[in-house]
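Input protein
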Amino acid sequence: MATIFEWSGKTSKGLIETGELSANSKEEIISILRKKNITPTLIRPKGKAASFGSKLSFGGGVKDKDIVVFSRQFATMIDAGLPLVQALDILSTQVENKSLAKALTTIKGDVEAGSTYADALRKHQKIFSDLYANMVAAGESGGILDTILNRLAAYIEKSMKLKKKVKGAMIYPIVVSTIAIGVIAVIMVFVVPTFAKMFASFGGQLPAPTRLVMSMSSFIAGLGGLIVVILLVAAVVAFAQIRKTEGGKKATDAIFLKLPIFGILLKKVAVAKFTRTLGTLISSGVPILDGLEITAKTAGNKVIEHAVMDVRQAVSEGKTLAEPLMKSRVFPPMVTHMIAVGEATGALDVMLSKIADFYDDEVDSAVSNLTSMMEPMLMVFLGGAVGFIVIAMYLPIFKLITLVK
């Protein structure tokens, strides 16, 4: 029994056409449209949700590691001579991640319908970034898709390592600080009041440190502690709301880059990411202007993003890459000078990769130094705070023992 299908496609002149056709299968619709010189982009039974196309959104559950494994497996299959559709069909049933498997099934359908692999990937931006799709497009046009896929896998792996280093640098002080504050809060709320009741029966004037600790305990255990918690939650919510606005994100990103310790680390991470991304794109055959735009979008910092977009504008006007980078004052002089040398020698992609490798090592060193510096500081803070509370609580007892003697 024939089914009515809704379809849309591109004509030979690049125009989008839509319509309905009655046929027994999707393949019959594809055949009819190709005879009319129309490249189908969407075919679905009338009245049903799209089985493939841009309306579907696959999300969140796909990790970078899943993309790396998929890219390497796909590159191996392409290198072995398997047709694109067959490789996608095999991998869609083989990958463990369900969201990725569904996306690959959809992509396979798009490719069968006449779409390029890169265009099919662009419909799943939550899984495959602009960088990924553009590099695949360059690989398809140059006939080196397997090489590009391996290069993408290597790039994602290095990006994962960079993220892990930064997270490690941030998580350690946060965890230790949280534990320290929790320990002090427990002592102030549960331990100090017990001593306070005992000291109340002694009578007389308590030492100043003891009175200070007891006052702080009363404040934290009472309404004051609740007010502090509410203010902290309000501050976090306000900060999150500010970060949602363009101006707020740019302002806070600028503050982050100027922080005494973390700012230096963030700058090194930004340089490593910028040079690695742009170098990978250029070496894969992506035009410099497209590469700069993608690099700006993936910068992760609004200050860096705006600086790179200004550089892109300058390059589009005929200037070299190094000159506007130097004027931006965001990137270190060493980076801009090395890029200038890379442009002059015609080996910009190689020079960018060398800079990225150097700054990866710099990030390693910065993280190690940060951890080495923060560890004793946090230990001194925790030990000093707990020690002060303990001494303050035992001072009246020592005084009492002296009076008894």
Observations:
- Strands lie at 3-10, 16-23, 39-45.
- The two ends are 107 Å apart (CA to CA).
- Residues 3-45 form one domain.
- The chain is about 75% helix and 5% strand.
